[in-house]
Amino acid sequence: MYYADRVVPPDPFVPDFASLGMLASMPPLGDVFADQPWIKTFDRTHWTLTTWFPFVLGDHGEPSLWPNSPPFPEPYPGDGVCEVSRGENRDNSPDCPATCGDGVAQEGEDTVNCPGDVRPF
Q1: Domain shared by 29 and 62, yes or no
Q2: Domain for residue 98, yes or no?
């Protein structure tokens, strides 16, 4: 997997096709195995719309990164998910039940509105 900086300044209204093109033009990482008798089955260059860090109990972990926002939207107060790690709480986001972020699954919380407190299993 390649990680690279942008090759042009960010434009909040246009995806960075120049940087994507630069990454796509780089030699595949699998070329180090070119002398092996293996057959390439997968080679793709694409944007990563989010770098997701799993919710920790109470959602006090590192917040997810959204490297392509703008122009692609990132989470915001009112999107239906209470993300304590992004600074959301009952005072500034309609998504947050009063007890969200305490690490305990309580009435009114579910895996959507308070994933840091309510585990899917």
Answers
A1: no
A2: yes
Q: What is the pLDDT of residues 45-90, one digit of tens each?
A: 666 667 777 777 888 777 777 776 766 677 888 888 888 888 888 8
Least Cα distance to 74 among 82, 83, 65 occurs for 65
DSSP secondary structure letter of residue 104: S
- Count of residues for the chain? 121
| Main-chain dihedrals φ then ψ at residue 20, nearest 5 degrees | -60, -40
* Full residue range of the structural domain in which residue 20 is found: 1-33
Q: How far apart are the C-alpha atoms of 26 and 14, rounded to whole Å?
A: 22
CA distance 57 to 61: 8
Residue 56 is assigned to a structural domain of this protein: yes
C-alpha 4/C-alpha 30 separation (Å) is 18
Q: Which residues of 14-30 are buried (b: 16+ CB within 10 A; e: fewer)?
A: eebeebbebeeeeeeee
Residue 95 near residue 80 (C-beta atoms within 8 A):
yes
Total Cβ atoms within 10 A of residue 49:
13
pTM, to two decimals: 0.53
